[in-house]
Hints:
disordered C terminus; 302 residues
Amino acid sequence: MNTFKKYMKGLGIFLMLLITGHTSSAQSETFNLSGEETTMIVISLVLVVMIVVLIVAFYLLSILRVMVREDGLRRAKEKGVPFVEEPGMWSKFYASLTDAVPIEQESTVELDHNYDGIRELDNHLPPWWTYMFYASIVFAVVYMFMYHISGSLPLQTEEYEIAMAKAQSNMKTAEAGSSIDESNIVFTDDPAVLNSGKIVYERNCIACHKAGGEGGIGPNLTDDYWLHGGSIQDVYNTIKNGVPDKGMIAWGDVLSPSKMNDVTSYIQTLRGTNPDNAKAPQGELYKEESIDSETSESEAAE
């Protein structure tokens, strides 16, 4: 629709330039044309030229047809024979489709059958009907081979079963995504998940946290200081429930659990990236405990 409006705008400007004679570059610049609008004007010019050429061609053909007819009349008059006008292109095309016998020649195909004064003609089937009949035979053979012999294409029952299986798979995926919450969320480095999270981040989070997570209105997401907890569960909870007193909305009302899961994993990848112009640390220091430290603490407790 926008392209159509731009095209009509370009056509209007072209006609205005054509009517008013504003052809100089200095005068054209007053319209403040963009590159796309200039392209539309060029396209409009080409279309106008094509239309003019077609009109001229039809006009010349009509003149040529009149000249040929007058020449035929003159020759027929000189020879003393009646003038028979040669059928036009459309008449020839129509005759090739129907193969109909002219009314004045119907006696050549008349049969001996007589039904209360109504006589029967031995007309051929119209070629278009014959070709469609042959095409239907070819289609039927191909259909039988593809669906019933080779089995390369599924029948209606198989199509239904495939569609139902796909729907069940999509339902399981949706249920698995909707079951994600703070209690079971885990970080994943799956490229598909991180790419999805990046898209969610770029659409919804850049305004406050900037493209690299360096922070703007919102806090820096690349350091180890967090206002509302730095674990992946805390980050998910903050995204889901928001921070109303700081102006952060509850994205749980906007995003699905799976999308919040994706963007949470993506935010984890921003840690330690040290972007330029990073905002000063805010909140409390949070460090992920390593497996070794957890093991040593459990051994000490024993």
